[in-house]
Design brief:
Belongs to the ABC transporter superfamily. ABCG family. PDR (TC 3.A.1.205) subfamily. Pfam families: ABC2_membrane, ABC2_membrane_7, ABC_tran, ABC_trans_N. By secondary structure, this protein is of the alpha/beta class. The protein has 47 helices and 20 strands. 54% of the residues lie in helices and 9% in strands. Strands 6-7-8-3-9-10 form a six-stranded mixed sheet, sandwiched between helices. Strands 1, 2, 4 and 5 form a four-stranded antiparallel sheet that branches. It has a three-stranded parallel sheet with strand order 11-14-15, with helices on both faces. The two termini are 13 Å apart.
Amino acid sequence: MANANGTKQTGERRSLCSTMSNDQEGPHRSQSSQDEQHPITQVWNKHTDAIPPDSCQFDRHEWAKRNIRILDSMAGEARQRGVLFEDISIQASGSPLQIQPTVLSALIRPVASVVNLLFHKESHQHRTKILHKFDGLVRSGELLLVLGRPGSGCSTFLKAICGYLDGLHLDPASKIQYRGVSFARMMNEYRGEVVYNQEEDHHFPHLTVGETLEFAAYARAPHIRLGNLSREEYAKIVVQVVMALFELSHAHNTQVGNEYVRGVSGGERKRVSIAEMTLARAAIGAWDNSTRGLDANSALAFVQTLRLSANLTKTCHAAAVYQASEPIYNTFDNVTVLYEGRQVYFGPCRHAVAYFEKMGWKRHPRQASADFLTAITNPGEREAKPGMAEKVPRTSEDFEAYWKQSPEYVELREMMRNYAQSFPLDGTEETKLNHAKRTEQANHVRPSSTFLLSVAMQVRLCLVRAYRRSLNDRAGIIATAVVQIVLAVLIGSLFYDIPASSAGLAQRASVIFLAVLTNNLIALLEINVLYSQRPIVEKHARYTFVHPFAEALAGVIMDLPIKGMSGAGKTTLLNVLSQRMTCGVVAGEMLVNGSGLNTSICRKTGYVEQNDLHCETSTIREALRFSAALRQPPSVSMEEKYAFVEEVIQMLGMEDFAEAIIGNPDGGLNIEQRKLLTIGVELAAKPEVLIFLDEPTSGLDSQSSWAICAFLRKLADHGQAVLATIHQPSAVIFEQFDRLLLLAKGGKTVYFGDIGSHSRTLLDYLQTNGARPCEPTENPAEYMLQVVSEGSQGSSQSIDWVDIWNRSPQNQEVLDQLHHISSSPFQAPNIDTYSKLEFAMPISAQLYLVMRRDFQQYYRQPEYIMAKLALGVISGLFVGFSFWMSDNSNQGFQNTLFSLFLLCTIFSTMVNQIMPKFISRRALYELRERPSRTYSWKVFILSQVIVELPWQALLGICTWASFYFSVYGWKQDPQRQGLVFLFVLQFFLFASSFAHLIASAVPSPVLGSMLALFMFVLSLLSNGVMQAPSALPPFWNYMHKVSPLTYYVGGISATALHGRPIHCSDQEMVSFDAPAGQTCGQYLERFLEIAPGKLYNWNSTGQCQYCPLRSADQYLANRDISWELRWRDYGILWAYFAFNILGAIFLYYLFRVLPYLRKNKGKKTNPQHLMTDKK
């Protein structure tokens, strides 16, 4: 492992050297060689005497020091900032307790608002106080560690000092200044100097890591650059160094990815976010749990990089770090401890532990300093010293009062006062900062702009990025281009060879209309994509990379031509062992209790994944009951299952929030509560075999992590087998486990065996084989990872721990045990039929429970339902009032028919509403519920289809009422009104079934929307409205017969217009003079016996007026629409509906189930050859 790491680092240095330089002859090279050098090497030799970057002894930290020294000579101290905050109080709008909205409450709310307005009832806006009068000072060059349990206000505090107050209210008495620059001026003029790194990672998934970081480096490149490098050269060089700093060099050409696009691992994506903010070159940085998902070494390396940045550039940083190890803690200068939104300490890290020990709290042996400080804020974890139980503060208010009366607080206030006097708000420091900003800004940038690039440069940069995104997403671009080209050809073929006369005038107008309509429908597909990009664009605006306007303009222009260590395999091992591996080749054999595996193994094991995926509209109790009801055997009554759920809630300490809605990470349960729920869902299933846990403590504070691990210990003591991977384990948590599997790169075993009391067995093994002694205060887990990665200190060569294990007696003992187990006869227990079943409950019970949850989900998402109703009602009224009560002329009937055509256009929008929701539910099912065999895929698809239908029916009722009476009137007989209602209702049910048909097969909503649009436009163009069937080319004549919209338009038109007489308008009337001596009737008597029209003035001897058609049935006959075929048309629509449902089931099986079964069929496991990480 150590050799691998050493080789990797050397390779990174050499790769970096070869990128930035061409030769290594030093200052004695010839002038010709000097000219061939890379500019960075020339600058290096000119300004420094350090080892150049093209040398194999190049040190990136030394390079950073020299580079920054040169830059500092240009900018001086103007950009060095600190932050002073005094009496910071933050409030949030809304009540602390919010009621989950439902469809009913959404309907009642407007009525309640009107009542309040009429009776002059004032609506009081509730505000919840989150932070209570925080004080502190972070000077330039200092690091501040923010500690507190989830929900204590760490994120809010970091956002406050950076000015990210979306939805938050800063108390007017609060004071924040940045070394002589006021809060308001900093936010308005120098926002790029204060940035905040949020916990979630938002990136363009199709960009590579290198492209993502080069965008950031280019956007924040100063106008005066090292060695007069171009912006492109500067960006590439700086990105190379930053990627080496954060160990991302190997992923330079790998896409960042997301939950839909395959890319780098979660830990690597987190490091991309850190590197991106580093390239922002801000003077003040706030990092919100940025070590989440990183292993101990990566987390320490990140904090050390902050330390290096603070030391070299005199920047200052505040970071909230959960589960901070002792080396991480010691890297910071100051620490502040938060307790339920109150500040209970701020001061040097070296004094913090002593402060609380003096208060009367006891620190346990080997307990990390950060763990001890966080434990102080948890009543269930802290322990008072003997004799101090009655003297120590207990509530957050008591802690705050103790802090405000302490000498440490008085000292802090004195430092703040001196700092404010040294850097008054008189404009002096702001003048310096403004001069430094103007020096770094490009030409033609407004002095007041917070961006370094001009608008033209920003648009150009965004254009390059948009081009790269399109190039990396070839499938999407090709699909868009193909659909648009094919649609253009099809529309052209529909109106091919239009006569160049007045007869073709209407057809030419139809071509223009269809071209505009099709492009507008295609534009609607961009809405979902733009919404997904919004967090990225907002982040880049906050980092002052580019203005959102530049991204929007670039997008418009781009659309014109075209429409152990993180990420190394710990999760792979658990996926294989839990039979959830869906890719790769797996070899070997896996036995459970001496028997082979069957289809029931997945439901008999519990798997707690890293990602906390849940139905966001359910409560905690409902989610646990759902798991228990479907995964426990049918022999257990529902009352017993629910009683066990209450036991799980009590065991996990979730009584206080068991009725809380899960929600999403932005609004709902916090990280700790979501992780507890994830564990609870698996426990509620009562797994018979064992429980797998993949990073169960990721993102949690040390106390929450301890609580979870202590609970796992309790399960193990009661006979439950537990297999877990954990990032950054503390010494106390590490010792909760009995045995350890330690793996090196390539999935090779370094150690497998007992950990021992106080980790003695593991430490003895490592030290016996050459590792340095473990210090008494050192965390054994961190010590273990360090010695395995780096080898023993003082050795000239690293230790090959894999070879040592292979030759060790401990390994031979393990092999002997495995041989004994495999060769010993095993009396398998009697296995009943139930034990072999893939699912615990029968299909009927599965369908009932899943449908109940899905109905509940829809009811608790009023925004989705109200959007549906608004689409139908507004579209119906808009079309209805546009063609209000059309008369009985030819044009009136044409308008009536065209109104149906326009109403059909909402079909595409309805489909685009349904598909993203279906695909998000499919992700939940396929990632969590299908692998655990909670319920069958047939139940999933049927439930999704059935639950959508009542809401589509409601939408049909509203649309019919808003459209029918405004177009056809209210005087028609009830039978006709009822049949039109059935057609409209069936149309919306058909749209739902069509959406599920497409979504069942496609991997993403974008591709599904494009395919659905193509098929919809085909059906829309051929329904006989824009072009009469008799005028259609042969292909379109066939499409006219297979288009479902043909029967929808025909059925409604025939039902609503049958028997209505036609009264031609003056413009439609055919006028001619009768022969002398004859009346019009006499002249046309023989003609009218065979003519379809009607003569208006029989007895006139002058001008005759003839209407070409008598009734609407004649007009409809020209469109192949007949009153006699109305029920046939209605039946055909139901046939299409049934076809869509069966097709959705078949396509889901073909594209989603069958590949899954093939990947899992016959797989066996051998973890010895799977892992590529150590943990």
